[in-house]
Amino acid sequence: MGNAKRRVSAKRKSQFLGNGSTIKHSKNSSATFTNTSSSKIKIPTAFDEEIAEYQCKPLTGNRIDMKVLLNLFLQLCCPRCFEEGILLSEDSTYGLCSNFVIRYKHCDFYSGFSSSKKTLNCPEVNTRFVYGMRQIGKGFSAGFKLCGTLNLPRLSKTAYTNHRINSCP
Questions:
Q1: Higher pLDDT pick, 124 / 56
Q2: Residue 104 near residue 86 (C-beta atoms within 8 A)
Q3: In principle, which of 27, 63, 64, 123 could form an S-S bond with 116, CB 3.0–4.6 Å?
Q4: What are the residue boundaries of the Mutator-like transposase domain, all occurrences included (predicted)?
Q5: How far apart are CA 110 and CA 102, in angstroms?
């Protein structure tokens, strides 16, 4: 009785249902055809591909090296005088968020922008930082050390406390 063999049922092989990545068209579809060449349909222009690529993949995260950005700005031209040479300077900081000013060498045109979008009049990067520190169970001093290690501007104690109070459920 102990030596009796158990019969194990073999698994059935799955049936091939076709390539899952191909587009299936119904036979009864009433599609209208235009007079375009097959090469136009198969090969879209490079510009259209770039636009589609940028629309599909949004930019996320904070990973910009300022030296690379400055070298890029030097090659751009002014919208007024069309001369090359843009100067980027940091106007002010609030925690991890910086406010930048773009000035042009050859004219008085300038424009300002922030490195993070604002939610409820607070930079989103600061709110995310405080929330992240709370998620891992750490406080202000651990965040202070983390910013120092990563060579980031530090969030002040009052700003950290204000974000902590505002983010409480």
A1: 124
A2: yes
A3: 123
A4: 67-165
A5: 5
